[in-house]
Amino acid sequence: MRRAVLTAASTTALVVLPLSLKPHQPAGPTGDPSQGVGAAPAPSPSGSPRRGGHPADGTYTGAPISTRYGDVQVAATVTAGRLTAVKVLRAPSENGRDREIAAYAVPRLTQEALSVHSARIDAVSGASYTSAGYIRSLQSALDQAGV
Fold first, then answer.
1. pLDDT digits 0-9 by tens, 102-121
2. What is the pLDDT of residues 41-97, one digit of tens each?
3. Which of 17, 53, 103, 123 has an alpha carbon 20 to 30 Å from 112's alpha carbon atom?
4. Residue 120: CB partners within 8 Å, gap ≥ 6?
5. Phi, psi dihedral angles at 98 (to 5 degrees)
6. Hey, is 115 helix, strand or coil?
7. What is the rounded CA–CA span in Å between residue 126 and residue 115?
């Protein structure tokens, strides 16, 4: 009996351990900007240059992120090292359903980003591709600002 319990426990451990170590792939944009798909030249900030490693105030345009349903691009305004405004420059809008999802998701994503002053936000249910594109574009803008 003891041998059966030990065998079952070790087999379970050998199955669970590799599965827990596998990195999870996030659902979201289909293009990888590092490989040129959906990549664009790095936009320049309209704010003042950085001094001493402190974030510069200004508005920074994030990279356009290609998603399954269209491009997503945002511009982030940084004041005193904090995210103070987000403007959506592009969102999926090819058909009525894309516009409906974007109209629902974008205000929620913006509200959450402004409340935490970061791109570390949750995706909106039902708008995972748009959410992932928004988050990546926002992070791109915040990286330029040094936030």
1. 999 999 999 999 999 999 99
2. 444 444 444 445 567 899 999 999 999 999 999 999 999 989 999 999 999 999 999
3. 53
4. none
5. -60, -45
6. helix
7. 21
| Residues 6 or more apart whose Cβ sits within 8 Å of residue 13 | none
Distance of CA 71 to the CA centre of its chain: 13
Residue carrying structure tokens 């990195």: 23
Q: Report how far residue 88's alpha carbon sits from residue 75's, in angstroms, rounded to the nearest whole number.
A: 6
- The pair of structure tokens assigned to 131 is 């959410």
**In Å, how far are 22, 30, 126, 138 from 25, measured between CA atoms?**
9, 12, 18, 20
Q: Which amino acid appears at position 119 of this protein?
A: A
Q: Which two tokens stand for residue 108?
A: 């929620």
